[in-house]
Amino acid sequence: MEATETTLVVPSKKECRHWYVEWQENDSAHYHGVERQIFHGESPYQVIDIYQTKKFGKLLVLDGDPQSSEHDEDIYHEALVHPALVTHPNPRAILILGGGEGATLREALRHPQIEKIVMVDIDATVVDVCKKELPAYSNGAYDNPKVRLLIDDANKYLKETNEKFDCVISDLTEPFPESPTHGLLTKEFFTLVKSRMSADGVLAMQASHAGRGMNRLYLHHLQTLKGIWKTIRPYRAFIPAFYSEWGYILASDAHDPLVSTWQKIDEKLKPFASQLRYYDGRIHHAIFTPPKELRPLL
Amino acid sequence: MEATETTLVVPSKKECRHWYVEWQENDSAHYHGVERQIFHGESPYQVIDIYQTKKFGKLLVLDGDPQSSEHDEDIYHEALVHPALVTHPNPRAILILGGGEGATLREALRHPQIEKIVMVDIDATVVDVCKKELPAYSNGAYDNPKVRLLIDDANKYLKETNEKFDCVISDLTEPFPESPTHGLLTKEFFTLVKSRMSADGVLAMQASHAGRGMNRLYLHHLQTLKGIWKTIRPYRAFIPAFYSEWGYILASDAHDPLVSTWQKIDEKLKPFASQLRYYDGRIHHAIFTPPKELRPLL
Amino acid sequence: MEATETTLVVPSKKECRHWYVEWQENDSAHYHGVERQIFHGESPYQVIDIYQTKKFGKLLVLDGDPQSSEHDEDIYHEALVHPALVTHPNPRAILILGGGEGATLREALRHPQIEKIVMVDIDATVVDVCKKELPAYSNGAYDNPKVRLLIDDANKYLKETNEKFDCVISDLTEPFPESPTHGLLTKEFFTLVKSRMSADGVLAMQASHAGRGMNRLYLHHLQTLKGIWKTIRPYRAFIPAFYSEWGYILASDAHDPLVSTWQKIDEKLKPFASQLRYYDGRIHHAIFTPPKELRPLL
Amino acid sequence: MEATETTLVVPSKKECRHWYVEWQENDSAHYHGVERQIFHGESPYQVIDIYQTKKFGKLLVLDGDPQSSEHDEDIYHEALVHPALVTHPNPRAILILGGGEGATLREALRHPQIEKIVMVDIDATVVDVCKKELPAYSNGAYDNPKVRLLIDDANKYLKETNEKFDCVISDLTEPFPESPTHGLLTKEFFTLVKSRMSADGVLAMQASHAGRGMNRLYLHHLQTLKGIWKTIRPYRAFIPAFYSEWGYILASDAHDPLVSTWQKIDEKLKPFASQLRYYDGRIHHAIFTPPKELRPLL
Questions:
Q1: Which of B160, C220, C269, D62 could form a disulfide with C273 if both were Cys (CB 3.0 to 4.6 A apart)?
Q2: Regions of chain D where pLDDT drops below 50
Q3: pLDDT in tens, B24-42
């Protein structure tokens, strides 16, 4: 009974009370401390959240899965876009599938020789919300006259179009059961993608977690692309906000990202190298080095 | 490598990704699943959050501590207000300290014989936010001509006023180190409170967690009031959203809540009994039954 | 780059790293800080864990659900056992269903007029583990010559026995899908229980969470017992380690726990009142006071 | 009231109830689902825990920080040991500081030309617990006649010895306030280390988190080594169980890990390459590729 106010044990204000949780599996989760929730809404396709996290700035979350953070979206998007665009010798027409955040588009537009970019995303709400709440992501890219944004189903667009592209960048979400991409990323789909590409076209796709023991979906995507293109190159980049080594795949019949020297890649990047925070020729070769566990597949 | 999309183990959408955490101590915490954050702001006095929780509806949180939920704020506020107002034989003038949510005021106004209620809360932002986001809490009470709302420091008001009250309801937040109430709830303060009450006045105060092993602050408050009033009666109500048996104290020199029968209490409540979801004469006697661990104090 | 060791922000040792989580629902969970895990094993019937928690001492957990803690098992077990034994005028033969911890038995043995207690628990491992790791729970009760422990299925025992009992204490676990009690707690089962009781027998059962909004299973159990016994009395006790107002039900054709005065109950408890930490005649009447939301059922 | 057992919403057994939490900072944490706790104890120097995690097998934790998991300790230890041993042209005498798990020793012993290894760890309990509970870590290495294990303070040993080493591997824990290494990893300490090395000696040290935005301690260690050795090479490896790109530093006055080709490295590894799960010549060059944010330091 001799307790005084000052001796009362109370929880410290340091303890974070507001969390966004990424469940990587049922028995593994990452807890992100949240300053406040900036946006919560539901489109016809998915639940959209933006959190102001304490560690990674604004974090975009679709259907509960983190998509990118202010803090390190450059790593994710530079690694997605530039390897394909420097591997193709002269990319002029680009197709982006998904990519509603606008940052994939922003990165592609850095390459001055590009003449047109078609971006097909099914969800207008994601595009609008990101334009408003994450303006640095698209950074005005939608206003560029080279860009044509189509709010449409990727599969439907590909079936109906007769356009041809030098590079295709697939920035579609994980094909989880409830996702709009569920059932989409099949051999049939990528065969259709290939039919809309020039003969020496280069595909790059984001392909989920790729660290050892977390790479089931990554292996699945690698298996899907095998047999469609001659050269299949897995590569990976560590994304702090995902707490994971993220997987990408580059595929082509004509070009191989392992051939060019880092000096030649840096030469290509020269006009905008100072705008890149993550990628250059040396990083290119580091991230394309396959880990031992993936080599039997290649 | 034979994984197919359908066999991929992915986290179920059932898993909640957005949480508000109440740290009861450093080694004990309750996780509230959140639908979305409705409000986040900071007044000069405290951080104010309102979460749409999955289980308790809207939950008001000040400086990280839960204050009340749509789902069960009636339990908290009915237990805070009515025992004092039925214990005093004829309460006409009421003072509410704190209570920015407006629900303490709403409950007090049910008693038809009341002629005036002065409510003193330091934080105009809390009052405004609750009026806007939790309108059912005050339910128009601020517009009642019997009510005078003062945005002021409780201590300052008490020192300056020469008004006298029959009942005082203390709905101040926990005196945690960072709280506007830190250092306030002392013997000096309650002596000052008493000096503004009629000789037969009745005080009721909310007094923190009171379950066995969680009652340090409750015991402290009981000790503070002892010696100031002759009759000190602890009582407790289980609040689901707090996951805790919540403590209150009633104090008076003239009246004892244990004396009246439950039938007489129900008689007093008759004009508005149907509006009460929690409290009546039988509950009154149940909640005033002191647990064994508190009896040595009484 | 001018960081020094002392300015490095590192997690404080205060932060608890080892947790047992009680999922109350998918969107609500209580996190118990753990000092160490004392036992982990699996019997043919359930997974058994004992944690040394920071707040509640040793905590027994079956199939992930908390059963009782050193800190407050007295509340749970006193509330389960004594109301029935003081409501029956002269209980001599007692049947305990479940109760493998041994504490239900310990409480029943306090009543000196009891002549025999049969305890039927399906899981010998729980009994053995609790004897070894939680010896204060049974406190030697199994060695009392009045006690007969049967490791058996409650349903099977009841069908085969021709013994009759004055009081039955049902301390069976929640009938969750994976529990050994799943599908057990039906009208048929309790009719069978009643057939093994004397005409004026009294049943008490533990009946899950009972706080407002958490009482689905409790209402279900109340509904199950209605029609089998004439008098059905719900009662509740707040258990700190469950963070919940816990539900119990007393049922009888002949006796009503509301009839006796608290003074008469205290008279009955006199021989061992000093050994009870929670229960007495006044607590009896407090816990039997039904909340408004349950009254329409009664 | 029409609830039936089958419609009752209950938490799924899928939900994990037992967690080890790595607090990366106060507002970021990784939750590891735990099968059971295998060991909990306290030595004079630190608290030692081993958890059987659901995802990473056995996980060794010292003072709350994860040290290594069965699932991927090979990545951590191969990356710590082999770069230094292949960079030095002919390492014969090796000193390991810390490394109580025994796996650093195991990796060093793979190099056939090594003649002696002195391992200095302050905590005999860690060594003993790991031998018993994680036998695959040391895999008999302590019985190798080339090995001398000293239970001693690293600083004290270095001051007193007159032995000289070709390579030093620092596998000391993070210098957090409560750690036995707190205050140890200073310029004075590493100057002392260097004084016990041959003129062309190579140091490798584990150096904490190194991902962008998590690399404060890593930058600190880089700064500490600068000025002591001429060549300072940061390198990094993603460790799944740490959910982090882990930092290491190689330092030498005479040798540079960037000089040798991957083919020459693979030649050196040939006698035991099939025993390595992670490291080879190509991985060597990938992990030594500095990220853009570290280049200004180099």
A1: C269
A2: 1-11
A3: 877 899 999 999 999 999 9
* Inter-helix orientation angle B73-87/B262-269, to 10°: 110
Low-confidence stretches of chain A (pLDDT < 50) are: 1-11
Active site residues of C: 171
CA neighbor of A39 nearest in space, from A134, A104, A121, A106 = A134
Other CB atoms within 10 Å distance of the CB of residue C240 = 22
Find the helix or strand (DSSP H, E) in which A217 lies. helix A216-225
| Chains with at least 3 CB pairs less than 8 angstroms from chain B | A, C, D
Quote the minimal CA–CA distance from C64 to chain D in Å: 6
Q: Which pLDDT does position C259 carry in this prediction?
A: 97
**Taking CA atoms, what residue in A is nearest to D19?**
A27
Rounded to two decimals, the ipTM of the complex is 0.93
Rounded Cα distance between B4 and B9, Å, is 10
Measured in degrees and rounded to the nearest 5, phi and psi for residue B168 equal -120, 130
CA separation (Å) from D179 to A65, C36, D62, D103, D185? 36, 20, 9, 21, 12
User: Which candidate in D63, D153, D171, D253 is catalytic?
Assistant: D171
For A152: left if phi > 0, alpha if psi spans -120 to 50, otherwise beta; the answer is beta
Q: How confident is the model at residue C12 (pLDDT cuts 50, 70, 90)?
A: low
- Catalytic site includes residue D171: yes
Distance CA C150, CA C127 (A): 11
Of all residues in chain C, what percent carry a pLDDT higher than 90? 86
CA distance C236 to chain B (A): 11
What is the CB neighbour count within 10 angstroms for residue A294?
Answer: 17
More confident residue, C9 or C154: C154
How far is the C-alpha of B184 from the C-alpha of A12, rounded, in Å? Answer: 19
Overall residue count recorded for chain A in this entry: 298
What is the rounded CA–CA span in Å between residue C214 and residue A21?
Answer: 25
Supply the residues of A annotated as catalytic.
Answer: 171
Q: Residue B140 is which amino acid?
A: G
C23 and D5 in contact by Cβ < 8 A?
Answer: no
B180 versus C103: the higher-pLDDT residue is: C103
The predicted-structure confidence for D187-211, as pLDDT tens digits, reads as follows 999 999 999 999 999 999 999 999 9
List own/partner pairs for C208-211 with CB under 8 A and 24 or more apart: C208/C174, C208/C246, C208/C247, C209/C24, C209/C242, C209/C244, C209/C245, C209/C246, C209/C247, C210/C234, C210/C236, C210/C244, C210/C245, C210/C246, C210/C247, C211/B238, C211/B240, C211/C236, C211/C244, C211/C245
pLDDT digits (tens, 9 = 90+) for B91-122: 999 999 999 999 999 999 999 999 999 999 99
Distances (CA, A) of B243 to C76, C134, C241: 17, 26, 10
Q: Which residues of D fall below an 8 Å CB-CB distance to A?
A: 14-16, 25-33, 53-56, 71-72, 75, 211-214, 238, 240, 243-245, 276-278, 280, 282-283, 285-287, 289, 291-293
